[in-house]
């Protein structure tokens, strides 16, 4: 097939096919051995022949020169053997026109694939605790989880996002007893109820430690709740509803929607069938009054199903929820975006369900993430997400005013500041592999330079501004056949590789694959823009460069949206 007929594959993949075909190997074996050449003057890509040399039985340098001889007549790229390596240089006009044709042709479907077609992934993320602080861990889970959802959808999966709210547990006893003590009627407080409930929780959980009489009251409130006493349930429901409404407001400002809010309370009724199942299969036993499932064969401590007083735990509700998700959604995977400290908990979940013969443990994936440090606001540690995002917005506003970015005409300044503030916070969470610990620093996260959200938003806004100045131009990828420079080619190669990066991010549940990619793309844009004029160049070249920039803008915009960051048009 000729190069220009290839709509759906990148020039890299095309090159891999051309190398693989004569060897009778799948193209994937070649792509695995592609690398960046040590020096860009050697080519755009280099190919290591070592591993294929074993398969073909030819020494590496012989294989390299054989392959290059076979590809002499290809127009779209040239190959030069260098010992066991092949250095590959693409033909710039072809790459530029191909990348622009692919990306602009795909429109809002740019980067979409059908890899996950027919498969459902249930993803548990955010999952804050009601009437307790929305911690930094919950923020990371929200940001990482929401991005994974978008990336999975982009690659064709059906995604069911679930918020496993911590809406059950002894903290409610403390709050209900505290409310009684203070004679507060939460239902009269409207949207203030979340903060009031939290205040009561902080005050009375401290007090309960020294005051056994109060602790007894708290216990009796929680047991009333477990027995479904109507008064207790009504108070609990008020706290839950008002907290949930507050969370939903913030989620919606961030463009996040859950398919289901199924908190721990939802499984309260379903835990007895968990106990029955393990008992029937003879897998559970009593240990000092508690019910446990031993997991020695997995090298794990036993999972606890009940405490000695018979009450169920977080882990019991976890198992109940996994069983519910399996039967309700028939998923390909159950994914949990929860901090690394809960790794053992999820290993026990996998093992217990495998031991019970319900699933293979690979069906459960714990997409864990590291700590975040230094994330405090003027009011102290992160407690309410809303406050934190407000502070990010107000700091972003100052930055916009201070810098040369004041010309944000036409945009609503508050909305713009919110988008940039949120972009800074989100990107800081997504810029590195999720398992890495991250530091947060307001000035660094909000900087318009370096590895930041605002830097990427600014690159996008700059291109928008060039396109606005250009006015109407002919959108036609074949115009790009006039682009010959190294900088244009590099930018086009980056654009062309967007779908591959989205796919990789989806396979690894790793948004940082997209964020690193966007930093490199913005870097290639900036190198191009520093060395070439756009608006004052010769008409044909100008039209061609505008096409290339439009493709770059569309890629940046699509990529930022996958991360949950708004691609702003002015800044
Ligand atoms: N609410 C829990 C916490 O704050 C997180 C829940 C995560 N999801 C789950 N299915 N365990 O620690």
Describe what you observe in this structure:
Strand 14 and strand 15 (380-381) form a beta hairpin. Helix 20 packs antiparallel against helix 21 (539-563). This protein has 21 helices and 16 strands. Among the domains are: 11-90, 2-Layer Sandwich (Gyrase A, domain 2), CATH 3.30.1360; 170-253, no CATH class; 387-563, Isoleucyl-tRNA Synthetase, Domain 1. The longest helix has 25 residues, at 539-563. The model has no long low-confidence stretch (mean pLDDT 92). By secondary structure, it is α/β, with parallel strands linked by helices. The chain is globular, with a radius of gyration of 28 Å. It has helices at 11-23, 27-31, 50-56, 60-70, 92-106, 136-154, 171-182, 193-210, 212-226, 230-253, 271-280, 314-329, 343-355, 385-402, 413-430, 442-446, 453-470, 486-496, 498-508, 512-531, 539-563; strands at 34-35, 45-48, 77-82, 85-90, 120-124, 158-163, 260-261, 285-287, 290-295, 300-306, 333-336, 364-366, 372-373, 376-377, 380-381, 438-439. A five-stranded parallel β-sheet has the order 7-6-5-11-12, sandwiched between helices. A four-stranded antiparallel β-sheet has the order 1-2-4-3. Bound molecules: arginine.
Lay out the secondary structure.
Layout: H1 11-23, H2 27-31, E1 34-35, E2 45-48, H3 50-56, H4 60-70, E3 77-82, E4 85-90, H5 92-106, E5 120-124, H6 136-154, E6 158-163, H7 171-182, H8 193-210, H9 212-226, H10 230-253, E7 260-261, H11 271-280, E8 285-287, E9 290-295, E10 300-306, H12 314-329, E11 333-336, H13 343-355, E12 364-366, E13 372-373, E14 376-377, E15 380-381, H14 385-402, H15 413-430, E16 438-439, H16 442-446, H17 453-470, H18 486-496, H19 498-508, H20 512-531, H21 539-563
Parallel strand pairs: 5-6, 5-11, 6-7, 11-12, 13-16
Antiparallel strand pairs: 1-2, 2-4, 3-4, 8-9, 9-10, 14-15
Helix pairs in contact: 5-18, 5-21, 6-19, 7-8, 7-9, 8-9, 9-10, 11-12, 14-15, 17-21, 18-20, 18-21, 19-20, 20-21
The structure holds arginine.
Residues 124, 127, 129, 164, 166, 318, 336, 338 line the site of arginine.
């Amino acid at each position: 097939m000729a190069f220009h007929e290839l709509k759906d594959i990148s020039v890299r993949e095309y090159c891999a096919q051309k190398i693989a075909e004569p060897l009778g190997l799948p193209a994937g074996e070649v792509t695995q051995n592609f690398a960046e050449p040590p020096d860009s003057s050697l080519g755009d890509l280099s190919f290591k022949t070592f591993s294929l040399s074993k398969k073909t039985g030819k020494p590496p340098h012989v294989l390299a020169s054989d392959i290059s001889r076979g590809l002499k007549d290809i127009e779209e790229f040239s190959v030069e053997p260098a010992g066991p390596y092949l250095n590959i240089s693409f033909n710039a006009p072809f790459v530029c026109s191909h990348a622009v044709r692919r990306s602009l042709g795909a429109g809002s479907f740019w980067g979409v694939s059908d890899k996950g077609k027919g498969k459902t992934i249930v993803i548990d993320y955010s999952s804050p605790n009601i009437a307790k602080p929305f911690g930094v861990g919950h923020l990371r889970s929200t940001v990482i989880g929401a991005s994974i959802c978008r990336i999975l959808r982009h690659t064709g999966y059906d995604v069911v996002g679930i918020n496993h709210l911590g809406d059950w547990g002894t903290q409610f006893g403390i709050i209900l007893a505290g409310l009684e003590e203070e004679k507060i009627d939460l239902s009269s407080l409207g949207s203030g109820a979340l903060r009031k409930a939290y205040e009561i929780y902080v005050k009375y959980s401290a007090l309960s430690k020294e005051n056994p009489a109060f602790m007894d009251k708290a216990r009796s409130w929680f047991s009333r709740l477990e027995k479904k006493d109507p008064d207790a349930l009504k108070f609990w429901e008020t706290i839950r509803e008002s907290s949930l409404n507050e969370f939903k407001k913030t989620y919606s400002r961030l463009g996040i929607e859950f398919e289901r809010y199924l908190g721990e309370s939802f499984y309260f009724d379903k835990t007895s069938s968990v106990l029955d199942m393990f008992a029937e299969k003879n897998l559970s036993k009593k240990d000092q009054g508690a019910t446990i499932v031993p997991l020695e064969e997995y090298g794990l401590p036993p999972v606890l199903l009940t405490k000695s007083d018979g009450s169920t735990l977080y882990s019991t509700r976890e198992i109940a929820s996994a069983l519910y998700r399996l039967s309700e959604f028939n998923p390909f995977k159950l994914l949990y975006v929860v901090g690394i400290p809960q790794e053992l908990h999820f290993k026990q979940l996998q093992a217990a369900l495998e031991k019970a013969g319900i699933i293979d443990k690979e069906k459960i994936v714990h997409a864990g993430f590291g700590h975040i440090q230094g994330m405090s606001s003027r009011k102290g540690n992160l407690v309410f997400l809303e406050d934190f995002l407000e502070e990010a917005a107000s700091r972003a506003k100052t930055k916009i005013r201070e810098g040369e970015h004041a010309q944000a005409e036409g945009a609503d300044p508050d909305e713009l500041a919110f988008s940039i503030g949120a972009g800074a916070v989100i990107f800081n969470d997504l810029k590195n592999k999720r398992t890495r610990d991250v530091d947060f620093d307001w000035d660094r996260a909000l900087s318009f330079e370096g590895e930041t959200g605002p830097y990427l938003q600014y690159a996008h806004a700059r291109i928008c501004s060039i396109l606005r100045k250009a006015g109407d131009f002919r959108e036609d990828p074949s115009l790009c056949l006039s682009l010959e420079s190294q900088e244009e080619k590099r930018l086009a190669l980056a654009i062309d590789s967007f779908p591959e990066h989205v796919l990789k991010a989806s396979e690894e549940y790793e948004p940082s694959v997209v964020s690193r990619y966007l930093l490199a793309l913005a870097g290639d844009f900036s190198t191009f823009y520093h060395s070439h004029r756009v608006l004052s160049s010769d008409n044909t070249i100008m039209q061609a460069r505008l096409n290339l920039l439009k493709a770059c803008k569309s890629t940046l915009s699509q990529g930022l949206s996958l991360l949950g960051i708004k691609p702003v048009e002015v800044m």
